[in-house]
């Protein structure tokens, strides 16, 4: 694979669909990116589509302004949302929530609107059948989120989605959420994850990503993690996450994209520990006050957890507030250094090692190949930043557009 071929693959033009950082102007994009984010749609390769989820924002299906709030979030840079019929909806409001979900999907179909990847998190398999029965041509539904996913019950949900998808020209994708005791408890975890892998493999073409239900996982132990710690500091939860990635996130062709656990804090609080966000990058970009704003909103903890997600083979993240989206997307872009290393690794076959063009590491061509392929997929979706651009620049541009 030559460098020229790799660069061309990132520069391919596309029309329609979803593009990251849509709220930034052409001038901003040219200043920030060596290669701009490219457009993906529901016909794109599934790897690109999964990466394009970015920060997935949930919204209760009971909101009376459901259609307008989804439109506003898309205009502000959100690229995936989930209409929630499960935990965010009281039992007595279930029927109203389903009605509003169907009405919202009809509104978007009428306008032929497809500005983000839109999913519905269901409570029961019956919800899948009810909602798909109400779909009309031109709908923008990307698929369903299946909570409390286990092999036995999940197989029935996947079979139902496969059946109802037959009526449409494109697939309805599935995102299972792993969060139940059989997955978390050590004595049942391996057997359950093995069974889940077999179920997901039977529907590989429609499994967009596997999501991790961190709140439910912690709840099994009576834990609510504090904003001063990441999910990886909660050892029982980190152990479950590691098991899920180990079994379902392999890069040998048998794995799936795994998305990051939810970050659920967005307001200031009294801290026990000092902020972990370094001062230097912000001083260098004349953004010291902006750093203070991030710390005051607990976004320094989110930034740290995103970095740890990436280090553990996890892509994207579940979020509960629009302020989180800029952080996730800014750290999802490919740096010039990453891109340079990936091109060097993919430039020739046969193995061996060579110094990075940046002169600060060794690139081992065989062990790092899967990493490099992942970088190229991310480069297509989130773009490649210019050499002098850091996540601070991206975050400040995103925040400045608010």
UniProtKB/TrEMBL annotation:
Biological-process GO terms, alphabetical: oxaloacetate metabolic process
SUPFAM superfamilies according to UniProt: Phosphoenolpyruvate/pyruvate domain
Superkingdom of origin organism: Bacteria
This protein's UniProt keywords: Magnesium, Metal-binding
Cofactor dependence: Mg(2+)
Any one GO MF annotation of this record: catalytic activity
InterPro entries, sorted: C-C_Bond_Lyase-like (IPR039480), Pyrv/PenolPyrv_kinase-like_dom (IPR015813), Pyrv_kinase-like_dom_sf (IPR040442)
Listed name of the protein: ATP/GTP-binding protein
Higher taxonomy: Bacteria, Bacillati, Actinomycetota, Actinomycetes, Mycobacteriales
